[in-house]
Amino acid sequence: MGMGLVCTLNACSLDEYNPGGTTSDVVFSNEAGINALVNSAYVYYGAQFYGREDILMLTEGGTDLWINIANSGYGRQMTKYDGLNSTVGQIRNTWNRLYEIVNYCNAGLERIAEIPFSNEEEKKSRLGEMSFLRAYAYWHLVEQYGAVDLRTEETKTAVLTAQRSPELAFYDLMLSDLEVAIANLPVAPIPAADIGRATLKAAYGLKARVALTRVAYEESQSEKDRYYGVAAEAAQYVIDNQAALQTSLYGTPEEVFRPANNKNNREALFTITHSTVNSLNPQPNNPNRLHIWFKAKYSAKAGMVRDLEYGADRNSNSGGMCFMPTRHLLELYNEDIDRRYEDWFREKYYLNVNQYNWTADDLAAFEKPSGLVGSSLARGDLALWFTKKKVTTEKRNLPYALVDIDDTYTGARVSSNARFNVHFPALKKYDDPNLPEAGSQVGSKDVIVMRLAEMYLIAAEAEALRAGGDKAKATELINVLRRRAAQPGREADMLIAQDNLNLDFILEERGRELCGEHIRWFDLKRTGKLYNYVQQYNPDITFVQPHHVRRPIPQQFLDAITNPAEFGQNEGY
User: Fold this and answer.
1) Is the predicted pLDDT of residue 321 greater than 90, yes or no?
2) Name one Pfam family in it (predicted).
3) Of 1.10.10.10, 1.10.3660.10, 1.25.40.390, 3.40.630.30, which CATH number belongs to 24-198+518-572?
4) Number of alpha carbons in the 13 Å side-chain half-sphere of residue 251
């Protein structure tokens, strides 16, 4: 089972102009108090971030891979850069919660050395966990907001002034924290049932990710190569020590996100947990909602009804926020040889009622001939097919409804045809067939935020791009994943040659492997590709500007400090 942590602390947030909770030296002077601090640092990752749409909009939205199809405007600030300013609630809330996590960690890290524990190994684990969680929070903060306020001591009173620290200072602290985490974290969580606690494999994984990201902030090639080396070494350690670290690749892509593998996933390096006992979740009515945000509209179409297999598609209409793949994302896959597409995307829907007779309205909705009125489908027959293929036959005369890639998109843009632009191949990575009822948003699946496949991609990128790197090794690392992804008998066709390995190919491969997994925005930012890739591959995002590699500093924070002019707003806002 997962941690199912319940926050028992009432944190004073930046709503009161204090990045974190006011704590008591008495309350946190013993083992129970430190455990409460550690647990509280985890809570926001599940209650406010991983499982919720806000962080999805900030990490996958506004990239080359996804378009928010909402006409209502919800989420447009992050997903389309439309109206992105310092008063946007998601920007403020993300800032507040991240600083609260930092403050919990600072409070615990200041105290833990002097506090006796009944189990010394548990004490070491808590030290490692707080170091890991602080690094993870600061990685989000510095990447989203830039050179902001770096705090390493508990904030106990209202913040009246704030000073910026350079990005490299954040990276120095993060890498130092991760060394502490590596020195102290166990291979398995303590207690063993607490899946979701940071362990040794997570610390090495985050070190690899942080070091790779740091490359973007270094000016000299020698320093870039240094951190490519740090990233490669950390990622390779995980690859080379899988058995010792209790991780391994699944045999097929489908198994990675198979719901049955969710609660004890061997490929996961770090997981944000959501309890199947809903009352144990910090927000019982809203634990993991990710399963609703990638769904194509299928219910009330061609006789289909919403069910647990196909999921809650209630947001997939022209008025509701929904993550629709761009044509670019779909065309990254060659589904004839790469099974990741069919394993991770849904195209086909089979009739889930006993019988359906085509109506004139449904036929018109799919531009099918009126002469098919009354023709029938039986349970299990193909009813809907939303495909990335180009269908050149008489696609309107088929017994089922077919929407192909040229119906869904006009060139690289989403079609203006409202009959078709809510029908698209739907990402299945967050499917949750164990909902309380069809259409419910109360999901209980854990969220994998770092997994072993990423280590192969990081090590390959570092080896391919650093001066003197081993490009043959980098090619083989990529090919490990591509062999795993191959359609049966097509392994040779999936292998790439060393000459193919450049940054654009690596970003394509990261898109194929990691799409939807809260990483794309960071990838495009750190490689300097955000603005150009969005313009090239996602032209429905018309407001993107070069300064969008940073979010605005929340106005509420600037209004609260006495030196807002000195602290300053980020460029462009």
Assistant:
1) no
2) SusD_RagB
3) 1.25.40.390
4) 1
